Amino acid sequence: VHLVESGGGLVQPGGSLRLSCVVSGFTFSTTWMYWVRQTPGKGLEWVSTINPDGTTTRYPNSMKGRFTVSRDNAKNTMYLQMSSLGSEDTGVYYCARDTVGGTRGQGTQVTVSS
Question: Per-residue pLDDT tens for 78-89?
Fold first, then answer.
């Protein structure tokens, strides 16, 4: 099982980023997937949920309207489009399978700073 996150970087407050998670070693198209993040102040935090066919998504209230999760099952890839980023969004972002605490990749660093 492999999950590889990418797309992080340094972005100014108010900016946008698109993260990707490419997976292998399991049947992606039948798996619930999650984004979680590790932030300096809050520890591990749930970011989003998407069901296997992409028709259902969920977010914490703090991220609704700013973050959009999607997936392309033909490419074994999940995405996280983030906008209106603030310093509180700084952290390492991970994709996870099956549950919030499921197998994760190595993460991708997102830094929001001017």
Answer: 999 999 999 999
